[in-house]
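Q: I have 339 residues here and want to know how they pack in 3D. Can you give me a structure?
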Amino acid sequence: MKKSIIFILMLLVLIGCGKEEQKKELYLFNWSDYIPNEVITDFENETGIEVITDYYSSNEEMYAKIKAGGDGYDITVPSTDYAEIMMKQGMLEKIDKSKILNLKELNENIASKISFDKNHDYIIPYSVGATGIAVNTKYVKDFDRSFDIYNREDLKGKMTLLDDMREVMSSALIIAGHSPESSDPQDLADAQKIILGWKTNILKFDSESFGKGFTNGEYLVVHGYYENIISHMTDEQAENMVFFIPEKGAQMYIDSMVILKGAKNIENAHKFIDYIYRPEVYVKIVDYLETPSINIGANELRKTIPVYEIEDLKDAYLMKDLGEALAPQGEVWNEILTQ
């Protein structure tokens, strides 16, 4: 009898230890330069949960790693098109919204653009913004606020485009007058011709170091995300930068927090998402990114002026799942990279 009681007590201790162990960790797979260290540190101090973060530079990289068996992550932050793909493929856990009390702060005027998950059962918006072009005005004085800047031979070898098929192909298709979701061979050929023209003048396709390269003067024009650029710059350097949303061919994004299927720290993931949505926490994110706020309360608290407003994105394309067009667009993109 005593042995049975001792066994039961030991079992309860082990179960308790297991629960305690889960309280300590959260594995986050995120874009680089996308959240202030202060937010992570404050969350860890408040909850006792250690956040272990890995980074990716494109949706394709993130998706490929998870599909290949990188299943140790709890949360990742895909853009709309890949969030849709992952939801359709059963790669996401359903979110228990009763544990995300601060979701009431979400600006539904923005969130409603995610038409495939209107009830936020799988996808919780993290940030809204747009891909733009940064120009070093210390050396480049006159320029059109469009992708035409990539046709300038005088800037050859001093410019970069994102190493991202969706970003570049979609922009070229729109500029050519076609749907960014087209699979028509002639449409893709038109886009390919435009991109190959740009390619002759860029130093490389770059999704990793364009921010640092722009800051140190290696690049004078870069295609990318404002937050990745400004995070490396001093105030003095920022005075010599213009960041603009192209008049035609602009892409907008809604990056969202999702919990991955099979996540081992689901409770911790819910705590993290709810924490992010506190207005006093989220305001630190938008002040850091200088992008429009998806959080109603944070919009009233923010100290910075966003580098562009929601209204500036009215003509921007929000990427969707390409479906059957993904393969033909991918083939053309690979041809572009190898030519």
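Q: Anything worth noting?
A: Residues 17-21 have pLDDT under 50 and may be disordered. The first helix runs from residue 2 to 22.
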